[in-house]
Each structure stands twice: as structure tokens, then as C-alpha cells.
Amino acid sequence: MLGHCCCGNTNNVDQGERRQVRLKFLRSQLLYDIKNYAFVESDVMSEEQQHAKHVLADIGEAGNVDRVSRLLSVIHASVVEILYPYTKREPLEEEVDDYLHAPEEYIIEMSVPGTMSRTTIQLLSKLIHEYMVYCVLADWLGITNPQAAAKWQAKAEDTKQEIEKAKNARMKAITRKLHPW
Fold first, then answer.
1. What is the C-alpha to C-alpha distance for residues 79 and 158, in angstroms, rounded to an integer?
2. Strand arrangement of the beta sheet that strand 18-26 belongs to
3. Rounded to an integer, what distance in angstroms lies between the CA atom of residue 8 and that of residue 3?
């Protein structure tokens, strides 16, 4: 499963009411997709790039996965920031460290308008999963195959724009004029 979302019933919701939504992205599923795309990308590389093929295909192996873990943490934080109007939280009153954390789940907690559709949340969940995967691949390919990195970076940027579009489309209720003039 790409991501999970939990949200309440939105029937008979006041315009100002908020709902709590929790998106959960499983590390194992993200790594699975990253490894699959990396394998395919390495398989289509030329024979002259034998070492780069090997390094790319081993993206999820011991040692290499540490870099992937750090990237996933950065990308997760970036997505939380992209969704800022919905993810706003009080600042921490504790020390923030830069230790390598590899959680089993990447969680995004949002407070969304009660009028936000479940389908919008599901779309966001799927787009965020793909965005995280594409960003990792773009970074890794920047080291192993810069020509292919540009393709994955473009896919990541396109997906980021889709996330922004889905987020912004639901910022407030749509109002229509009573008269066309």
C-alpha cells in the first residue's frame, strides 16, 4: 500500500470545522519502489557504464541505504513544509539533532478543512509517495548517471507541482456569484 490516510466523515460539516488526517508512508514500500526503479534504470544503461550500473542497482544495499535514509528524512521534512497550511505545528522545545534516523514509517499529520474530500487526501498520499521516490532517484543518479538524473528531477518537480495544485485547490470553499454580471 502506497500510503494510508485516516480522516473522519465530512457529511454536514461547518465551513470552519477542521479534520485531523494522518498520512503514513512505509519505509519498506518506499525502498521497494526505489530499488525497482533503480534496477530498471541500471538495466537500460550502456555496457560501458558497468560500474555505474552496479552502484545504481545496489541503491538499497548496506551502506548505500544510509544515504537513502538521510534523503528520505530530508524529503519527508520538505513535504511537510510544502503542505504547511495543513501541517502547521508549535515549535519544538527540545533539541533537534542531525543523527541518522531511519523510521519504519514517515508520518504527515494535517489539520484540513472539514470540506476537504477524501479523494483529494488519497491523491495527495499517492503523489507524495511518488515524489519521495523520484527525489531519491534523482539524487542518487546525480552521482551515478547525471544524464538520467535530469529526467527523474523533472518527474519530481512535476509531481511537486501536482501536490501544490491539489493542496491549493482545497484551501477554501468555492463561492460562486449569484449573478453572471
1. 14
2. 4-6, 18-26, 105-113
3. 17
Three-class SS of residue 3? Answer: coil
Residues 115 and 177: their CA atoms lie apart, in Å, by 20
Q: Alpha carbon 126 to chain centroid distance?
A: 8
In degrees and rounded to multiples of 5, residue 24 shows phi and psi of -125, 125
Please report, as a single letter, which amino acid is at residue 104: E
H/E stretch holding 133:
helix 118-144
In terms of C-beta density within 10 A (0-12 exposed, 13-18 middle, 19 or more buried), how is residue 27 classed?
Answer: middle
Cell of residue 96, nine digits: 533537534
pLDDT truncated to tens, each residue of the chain (181 aa)?
445 544 444 444 455 788 999 999 999 999 999 999 988 888 877 777 776 666 777 787 788 888 899 999 999 999 999 999 899 877 777 777 777 778 899 999 999 998 888 999 999 999 999 999 999 999 999 988 888 899 999 999 999 999 999 988 755 555 556 766 6
Single pTM value for the model: 0.81
Neighbours of 41 (CB within 10 A): 22
